[in-house]
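New to this. Please check this record:
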Amino acid sequence: MLAFRKDPAIEAIADRTIDAVMKKHYNPDFGLINEVINHDMTRNADLARMSYVGHAIETLWMLLYEALRRKDTALFNSVTGMFMRHVEVAWDDVYGGAFRSVYDVDENTWALDKVTWLQEEILIGTLCIFAHTGSSWAKEWFERMYAYAMDTLSLKRHGYALWATSVNRRGKIEPRGNRCENYHHPRHLMLNLVLLDKLVKNGGKPLGVG
């Protein structure tokens, strides 16, 4: 909304949101975002070791877009570092793909399914970072995530022009899903097609931040 016109009330909400994510929800003890904290913005004793990394990754690419709107290079760089941390922690080095949630950081207990929307959030964030900075890290991780998505989540090999909504840790699909993906998949396609178009028009050179 702020990209279309100024609005002090919405700007204040955006400022508060950035502060909440980057300072209040971020847990410096292990460098990840706590999704659940108390209403007074203090750490929740029962959930202090839990991080829903999928939602954190999704939120962080949105902050990348907000940093671009503001032309705020410092914010873009800070969010990039946090985004990188969450992607690397979420990645499954054994079977590929990203896990969505760690229930207890110290015990290293995770939800082991691979939801498609999270893989697509990583594609959005990595392409955003690469498009605007030329980052080799973003290029490598976009390519890694894209290969996993095409090999594992696309149902073309099964004769369907659709994508799985989730797979198990080994990348096997569950044939009877209980939902139809009507949001994350088209959003990821539209946002990344727009960015790729901008890159092509810019001769493949980084778009910059400020």
Remarks:
- Helices lie at 8-25, 53-70, 73-90, 116-133, 136-153, 184-201.
- The beta strands are 26-27, 32-33, 102-104, 109-110, 114-115, 166-167.
